[in-house]
Write a structure and sequence with these properties.
The chain is α/β, with parallel strands linked by helices. The protein folds into two domains: 10-173 and 404-419 and 468-475, NAD(P)-binding Rossmann-like Domain (Rossmann fold, 3-Layer(aba) Sandwich), CATH 3.40.50.720; 175-400, Dihydrodipicolinate Reductase, domain 2. The chain is built from 15 helices and 19 strands.
Length: 477
Amino acid sequence: MNLPKSGVSRRGFLKSSAAFGALTILPSYIALGNKSSTGLAPSEKVNLAVIGIGNQGGNDLRTLFGSGHCNVVARCDIDLQGKHTQKSLQQFPDAPTFTDFRVMFDKMAGQIDAVLIATPDHSHFAATMMALSLGKHVYVEKPLAHTFGQTERLMRMAAKHPNLVTQMGNQGHSGANYFQFKAWREAGIIKDITRITAHMNSPRRWHGWGNSTTAYPSEPLPPGVNWEQWMDTVAQPHPYSKKLHPAEWRSWYDYGSGCFGDWGPHILDTCHRFLELGLPTKLTAVHRDGVNQSDLIYPDSSTIRFDFPERGPDLPACEVTWYDGVKNKPQLETEFSEPVTNKETGEVTHGPTTLNRPGKVLYGKELTFQGGHHGQPLQIVPREKYKAMRDELPKFSQKNSNHYANFLLACKGEETARSPFSVSGELTQVFNLGVLSQRFGGELEFDSNSKQITNNKAANTLLDPAPRKGWEEFYRL
């Protein structure tokens, strides 16, 4: 099948693609005879379209543009009159605007090299599938998709198009912790990790909603909001309210991924990648508080434990425990805490240390590591242990492109994307599973071969729920 021209309708193209059973679109570097494997000469700027231009999407857009490696050629958002989109509209006045990404691709596919997708979690999937099917590089905000099945399809689609660059927006995966973790793992410093704790305990938007939220609220739809498009693939549509748009959607099971899906990608990314954690065999809801009895929003706090099996000689079975909720904080175990001196008696003691800032602790057989979030590097604890071995620790690169520039440079064939779907996909599936544990409680047994939850039919159904009528075509690509 040849690349569709901009005059070919989206629906006709998708139907004909599905009829053939697989996409065989020629990448632009073949169709146009370019030498670069990405279809762009290194000196060229990437022509970027943006889907979701407010809030995080606006920040992403400005950072990508500020790298100097792209032109902004199209903008798409369901709310072009909203206050949160005005800065992006004013900054790029010459780029055409759309409220439906399907219309944008119909009209401008031939002018677009890459797409930033920074919509709410529930609406990443369809836009990303269409962009990839049209031969576009994609940068997708985290988590990659809202359900396990959607994520699985995105990984498969990316694998069908190995010349396309994919990147998930866990920005810290291009920071110091990425290069440090990689170097320390390769040197054998990080090994034999049997337990990991990770946490984020700041207040969240939905805290305190649990007892009062029994249904989706309804408010008059503001002018200019394309609410039908905002719903995207979600099977059960709900009325507009400010508790969904523009910033509250993360609170709801149907649309967001709670605290874990929001912050987990910034905390557990290097652990998952370089410890080759893969998928868990069991998830246990150790603690849940402020549970919404109407099954609509996330708990006020939760502790979720993941059991990962043994993966190699120095990769033993590993328990990963996630904590969220304002008062639900883990402690750094006594033997790894820093000494505290009593000013009156001079007595030196070690006591358990409550962990307050978002981060992680990795407990190994020989060493323990404490780290923060995003790109913050690890520390060996206690500090006396670090001092004794700091001269033998391997060095790691401190001068690297940031996550946004890395994506655009990869589109130009100059670098390799650091968080492609082949890496970020399975990481996202851990979050897809984790939010089901938060929702259902108890224990969930997961078969990583069949990719099914084997002891809870309702939870298993939500691994891959059916889409809303009219959106099935994206699931058939």
